[in-house]
Amino acid sequence: MSLSDIKQRMDALVKELNQHNYNYYVLAQPSISDFEFDQKLKELADLETQYPDLQDSDSPTQKVGGDITKEFQTVKHRWPMLSLGNTYSEQDLRDFDERIRKAIGNDFQYVCELKFDGLSMSLTYENGKLARAVTRGDGTRGDDVTSNIKTINRIPKNLRSTGFPESFEIRGEVFMHRAAFDRLNNDRIEKGEVPYANPRNFAAGTVKLQDSGEVAKRPLDCFLYFLYTDKPLFKTHWESLQAVADWGFHVCEHNKLCASIDDAIAFIHYWGENRFNLSYDIDGIVLKVNNYAQQHELGFTAKSPRWAISYKYKAEEVETVLQNVSYQVGRTGAVTPVANLKPVLLAGTTVKRATLHNANEIERLGLHVGDSVFVEKGGEIIPKVISVNTLKRTPNAEKVIYPTVCPECGSNLLRKEGEAVHYCPNDEGCPPQIVGKIQHFISRKAMNIDGLGDETIEALYRKGLVEHISDLYTLYEKADELNQMERFGQKSISNMLDGIERSKQMPFEKVLFGLGIRYVGETVARKVAAYFKNIDSLINASYDELISVDEIGGRIAESLIDYFEEPRHLEQIEKLRLAGLQFVAEERELALASDKLSGKTFVISGVFEDLSRDELANIIESNGGKILSSISGKLNYLVAGDNMGPSKLEKATKLNIPIISDKDLLNMLA
Ligand code: IVH
Question: The pTM is what?
Answer without folding.
Answer: 0.51
